[in-house]
Every structure is written in structure tokens, then in C-alpha cells.
Description:
Helix content is 44%, strand content 23%. With 326 residues, it is of the alpha+beta class.
Amino acid sequence: xxxxxxxxxxxxxxxxxxxxxxxxxxxxxxxxxxxxxxxxxxxxxxxxxxxxxxxxxxxxxxxxxxxxxxxxxxxxxxxxxxxxxxxxxxxxxxxxxxxxxxxxxxxxxxxxxxxxxxxxxxxxxxxxxxxxxxxxxxxxxxxxxxxxxxxxxxxxxxxxxxxxxxxxxxxxxxxxxxxxxxxxxxxxxxxxxxxxxxxxxxxxxxxxxxxxxxxxxxxxxxxxxxxxxxxxxxxxxxxxxxxxxxxxxxxxxxxxxxxxxxxxxxxxxxxxxxxxxxxxxxxxxxxxxxxxxxxxxxxxxxxxxxxxxxxxxxxxxxxxxxxxxx
Length: 326
């Protein structure tokens, strides 16, 4: 990814400084408080250059920092996940040391201090608010926010680490490149929840080991309430937890009920509803008025047009363009 092609537009804010104290102040504002133990400037001083934007309460930052720096973090509960592209970066806690190589990803523990040592790095950091993670973890597993803890800076596996970088890269190119998409509450909500769910899957945390609570019984009436809620709110960003609350059942129980009675999940059902709404809009649209497939797909939260076309063809036996023309 190059700053000139991906990070363009007024919604990306740039910052640069050669002053070490100002660089440290930026790190404290953007990520977490730190106690600096050593900072060795290069020929251009601290050499800090950043470009950043936000998706509601989620922050993303491309950062170049040339100064050799050693510090200890003072985390505030939010997650900062870094994909290191070049440079040297080591994270240590007690006797556990994680030396990142280019392409690796790391989580700065949100509840425990760590030592960091980095030099001439080019990285991409995603900051996720604690409240969002607790919401998604509770919807997936029933775990309470107070019990959600992350145990390691390393991803569970190399493959999952790559999954994180692919997810962030896709969202950067398909959503963060367009302010109109970022302002769409359905698209922004889906993107935020995707990042949180991916973080929970990639890094070790107590939600992985938490025994699921007894699912409980979901009555046919409760299931109908859930379906009605999804149907009525398909144009809005909704979560499993919100649907379960509307139905008066637990999120895990709702997921099991959807699998048992509809052979799908609540969120996949919501996607099917949105695909059907897009189909109706394509049937009703007049292409001579300037209505496009992209406009209709984006309205219903489909940011990946290739995937939208594939799913549409599988569901309706023809392409979106054919439906729009006929």
C-alpha cells in the first residue's frame, strides 16, 4: 500500500515532526501513555510521519518513525494492533519477548504494561475501543466485559496473523478510501464489528476459553420477533446482541435457534434480506436516470462488488447488470 494511492483525500490527516518530545506526545494522544526510557534521534531528529483517519470510534494510522526508542506502555483498555511492514520492533513482558519481522502483527496488551523497543519502523496500527470488543465478545460467547482479557501480544497462529492484515487491507481499500462509505452507518457498523470479531479470533483471550452458558430455549414467537427485527432494520447496522435483545433471548441461544430452524446464522440471514432488498431495487430502478449497481449495492451494505455479483447470481440466476437492464 502506498500513501499516494490508498491514503488520499481530506479525511486522512497528516502529521510530521522531527522533535522527540512532540513525537512522544503524539504517541500518547494516538495510542496510549508511555514512559520513555531511551530515544536516539537520527539525522532528521525523531523522524515521525503519520497519516490517520477514523471509522466512528475506530482509529487507523500509518506511521513511519526513524528514532530508536525504548519505552514502557501504560495501557488504557483499548486495543492497539500493529502490522509492521519494515524496521525493527520488539515487545517484552516479564521473560516473554516477541521480535517482530516485516509482515508480522502484534497486539499491545490493553490491560498490562509492556516494554517496547523499535527502530526505523513503518507500520499500520488499528485502535479498537474496549466497549466495542466487549460488545462483540459478549454477543459471540456470552462473556461479560469485566472477564474479557487478552493474554499475549502474539497472534494464535501465523495464518491468523495474515488473516488480520488481509482484513485490514480490504477495509482500507474498500471503505476507508471513500468518505461517503465511511459515513454510511450500515457499512461503518459492519466494518467496525468485523474488525472487533477478527481481533477476538486472532489474539489469545479469555473468550476463547470461556465455557458457553446454557443456551436456553427459544420459542417460535421469540424467533419470529428476531426475524421481524432483522427485516425491519436491514438498512441499519445491527448486531446479534441487538437482535437477541429484541427477541428477549440470549445471543448464543438465538444463534443455535437460527441454525436449527433456518439453517443459517442471524447475520447471514440479515445478509440474505439485504440481498433481496438490493434485488428489488435493481428490478425497480430505471438505468436511464443514473441509478447504478454500485449505488444500490452500497445502500444495502455490500462494499465488495465482485462478491455481491457472485452472491446475486447464485441467488437469482442472473447478474445484477442483467436485472438492471431488463
